[in-house]
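--- STAGE predict ---
source: upstream dedup step, 1 unique chain passed
mode: sequence only
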Amino acid sequence: MALFCRTAALLLKPAKAVPATISAARQYASGGQYEYIVVEKRGENQNVGFIQLNRPKALNALCDGLMVEVGRALDTFEADGDVGAIVITGSDRAFAAGADIKEMQNRTFQECYGGNFLAHWNRVSTVKKPVIAAVNGFALGGGCELAMMCDIIYAGEKAQFGQPEILLGTIPGAGGTQRLTRAVGKSLAMEMVLTGDKINAQEAKQSGLVSKICPVDQLVSEAIKCGEKIAGNSKLVSSMAKEAVNAAYELTLAEGNRLEKRLFHATFATEDRKEGMTAFVEKRKASFQDK
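--- STAGE serialize ---
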């Protein structure tokens, strides 16, 4: 697999900021260098974590090393008090074309079951800070699953989504049958999973899988703008809001409303709630301190 993997050779320059050197950007997380991803902080206030999948020759196929690095970068951004949102993206050609089939080709049932194969992929869905997927090109199989683990999906005009595992004699194993069904409904999810057919960006938007379609060359900047807007709010309260929305997929309406009420009440124990309402009454912009 090492033949398919290479280090990042080029970094996208942060908007309105001094470009970081390659070594500085790749050593942003405390664990040292990254081999399969590019990690930076973006935005005018450097408050948006940025992760770019970087296996261009393999169309960003999700090898185990890449997903371990993504988890490490997420842990670092989670611990960074300046970061209020995170953007995950790939290249113009592919967000991620799927899991690394060559890596899993010879795995046995015993290895998969005993080692809980793919369990660590779920780290993306457990991050407390909002995560935005910026999807250009192919988001297939594990790539589609990775995008669906994020909280918001922005798609480039030429993006394509699919769960083609059936064509390989298997089924989705990282949430594809579950999250896709919740996002687009049973009929379309069943058709995609059983046929391996893809849907384009417009169909994904119409079905509710993505929230916004952007020109290919503007996708990342639009996702970062969204991240900046989120990061400008109270990070503490944003995490509460994310928890409440995600609970809608897990709880009954009565249980979800009960959780929402408790989290709503909890905001009244924060300084940010007091500041936000006081700023509104005083007709000024709130200055949140994440407390």
